[in-house]
Amino acid sequence: MTNKPPVASDLRSSFKESNQSQPMEANSNPPLSPFFKGGIGSFCFKPLFRKACPELNRRDGKGRFFTEAGKKYLTNSWASSLSAVLVTLALFPLTMTSAVHGQERIRIGISAVSLGFLPTVVAEKKGFYNKYNLTPEHVLVPCAIATNAILSEDLDYNVCTGPGIAGAIKGLPIKLVMTTQAKLGYLLLVKPNVQRLTDLRGKTIGISTFGSQLYLTSTTLFRQAGLEPGKDINLLPGGDNNARLAAMETGKVDAAFVSSPSDIFGVKRGYKVLLWSRDHVPLIQNTIVVTDKKLKQSPDQVKRTLKGSIEALKFIREHQEESIAIAAKWLKLDLATTRAAFENYLPCYSTDGSLPDQALKDLIQYELDRSSLKKEIPLSQVASRDLLQQAQKELTIK
Question: What confidence score (pLDDT) does residue 29 get?
Answer without folding.
Answer: 36
